[in-house]
Amino acid sequence: MSATFVESTDGKRQLCYLSYGYSLKRKNKKGSEYWICVKSQATATSCSDLSVTVRDKHTHVPDETDKQILEIQQNLKRKDIDESVPIDHIIEEAFHAINN
Which UniProt keywords apply (predicted)? Predict the structure, then answer.
């Protein structure tokens, strides 16, 4: 399974792999990236080919909804910036899309 990336609420890139979320800790000299789980101390390394190696066990179950929430927040933020409609309308539209 390959890795995907989403933007966190503070605008930083976040790794999503096997329904776990990771924040970037550092970039290594050879191009790989070192990540730490957002909910535990589990770590992972990603390579430019999107392969991921997880080094530690997680102390929690995977949660796909975390990724979905970040994607919804990212889309709402983008719509608020790009569209000239009231924020209430954007949120109501997103709420209806989720529930249908």
Answer: Metal-binding, Zinc, Zinc-finger
CB 31 within 8 A of CB 23: no
For residue 89, the Cα-to-chain-centroid distance in whole angstroms is: 25
Which residue range is the domain that position 8 belongs to? 4-99
Q: Which residues, 6 or more positions from 80, have their beta carbon under 8 angstroms from its beta carbon?
A: 87, 90
Helix axes of 87-99 and 64-82: crossing angle, nearest 10 degrees: 150
Question: Domain holding 57: CATH number?
Answer: 2.20.25.240
Distance in angstroms (rounded) separating the CA atoms of residues 20 and 28: 21
The DSSP symbol for 9 reads T
Per-residue pLDDT reduced to its tens digit, 18-70: 888 899 999 988 889 999 999 999 999 998 887 898 988 888 887 777 777 77
Amino acid at the residue 78: R
Strand blocks (E) in 1-100: 4-7, 13-17, 20-27, 33-37, 43-46, 52-54
Structure tokens at 71: 């994607």
